[in-house]
Design brief:
Low-confidence stretches: 1-11, 199-213
Radius of gyration: 21 Å
Shape: globular
Number of domains: 2
Largest sheet: none
Helix content: over 70%
Number of helices: 16
Number of strands: 0
Distance between the termini: 61 Å
Length: 425
């Protein structure tokens, strides 16, 4: 057993820290069952770690979540990394964050290999057709869910609509994020009620964190852990450098969850780099929805298809998937390992909170643009409406919004309908 941090003393009922073997088994299990997107993953962690196992206090859990939601990258994976860090330092962070995505990485590489090899078979094509309907429904439901939580004023509706139009018009996603942050900051300083107040988690009160000697030395070491492998990949040139550079950039602008950055990934992968087709991208979104782990694991599929299509062969596919995944998640580890000692000194209030609120509002419009991208290629392939996909999409949307059917059930049902249709045709 290890000594609990002083921050936990007297803050809720917290048990002794687990052994590293116990923690390892839990994080591996979490990586295998973490379906349902970040909300479901965070709910599982809260139930297991705060209520049942009592490895971390409620207050500290929510304060860490607040910090992770303000960072670019998948907040659930970053939260797992922070909790691992709070118990066992850097080793704990890498174990928790790595196991959170490892099962999904293995599954997606296997599924990507099957898709790349047999994607033209009628049965596989039918499954992909049905999965496209599931993706449209899930993204449309996400627009309503997130919009209902963050859109609170007419000005916020207008701001989300502007972001939607700008993305469809071809304005780069990082520019939209920067403009939204600036708008949120200015409005927060001048007329804070205009866009509504951003949501918060916990009381934001300061707590002491794990003592860290040589903090600046640790910070420099962490940055080098990130920059050195990326620099080496960039020096290789060709597809390797393209994948490393692009997915590093994508990781740095992933504010507001995976749905927000996926239009940026889709546009670049399909239209700029020509790594895969729009239909392939829709299939990747569906596979990402149907596997555990963060939805941003779609990047693994994109990297696999890039290696397979550009250089040829399953080995290149695996290399592309590995590079995409590495460059997507290493920045998240850097943020946590550098910021964990400061988490409890950071409050999402004032100018920082206002800028983040602006980004969150704009993200609603960005997700809407992603729904348009998917619908255009899944339900209107070749300019003609696919009535089967449209009907299945409508049914899936009603099932998600009205009856709260789970993501896995929706994806499996839509895939089954597509499979039957493919076999019959």
């Amino acid at each position: 057993m290890v000594e609990r941090p002083a921050a936990e003393a007297g803050v809720g009922a917290v048990s002794e820290a687990p052994t590293e073997a116990q923690a390892f088994r839990f994080w591996l299990k979490l990586g295998m069952i973490s379906f349902g997107g970040p909300a479901g993953q965070i709910a599982i962690m809260h139930d297991e770690l705060v209520d049942r196992r009592r490895w971390i206090s409620e207050r500290r859990f929510l304060h860490a979540l607040n910090f992770c939601m303000a960072l670019p990258g998948p907040e659930a994976q970053q939260l797992a990394s922070y909790i691992g860090y709070s118990m066992y330092g850097v080793r704990g962070a890498i174990t928790a964050g790595g196991l959170f995505v490892l099962p999904s990485f293995v599954l997606l590489c296997a599924m990507s290999a099957v898709y790349a090899t047999y994607g033209e078979v009628a049965a596989i094509a039918g499954v992909v057709r049905g999965l496209g309907a599931a993706v449209i429904a899930l993204i449309a439901a996400a627009v309503l869910r997130i919009g209902g939580r963050v859109i609170k004023t007419p000005a916020a509706v207008a701001m989300a609509a502007v972001a939607f139009g700008l993305l469809l018009a071809g304005v780069p996603f990082p520019a939209i994020v920067a403009a939204a942050a600036l708008t949120g900051y200015v409005v927060g300083r001048t007329r804070p009620a205009l866009l509504g107040k951003g949501s918060s988690h916990g009381d934001g009160g300061p707590e002491d964190v794990r003592a860290e000697s040589g903090r600046w030395r640790q910070f420099v070491k962490t940055i080098l852990i990130w920059l050195v492998p990326v620099a080496l990949l960039l020096l290789v040139g060709g597809l390797v450098a393209e994948l490393a550079g692009f997915f590093t950039l994508a990781a740095l602008v992933t504010f507001g969850g995976a749905y927000a950055v996926l239009p940026f990934v889709a546009e670049a992968a399909v239209e700029r780099f020509c790594w895969l087709s729009a239909e392939d991208m829709v299939a990747g979104l569906a596979l990402g929805e149907s596997t555990p782990g963060p939805l941003i694991m779609v990047n693994t599929f994109v990297g696999f298809l890039a290696g397979y299509n550009v250089e040829g062969g399953l080995l290149w596919g695996l290399a592309g998937a590995s590079i995409a995944t590495l460059c997507t998640f290493v920045p998240s580890f850097v943020f946590i390992l550098s910021g964990a000692p400061l988490i409890d000194r950071i409050r999402t209030t004032g100018a920082f909170s206002a800028a983040l609120n602006g980004i969150t509002i704009a993200v609603v419009g960005v997700i809407g643009a992603l729904a348009v991208f998917v619908a255009r290629h899944a339900a209107f392939s070749g300019g003609e409406p696919d009535w089967l996909v449209i009907a299945v999409t409508a049914a899936a949307f009603v099932a998600v919004v009205r009856y709260r059917v789970g993501v896995v059930s929706i994806v499996a049902s839509c895939a089954a309908v597509g499979l039957v249709a493919g076999l019959l045709s």
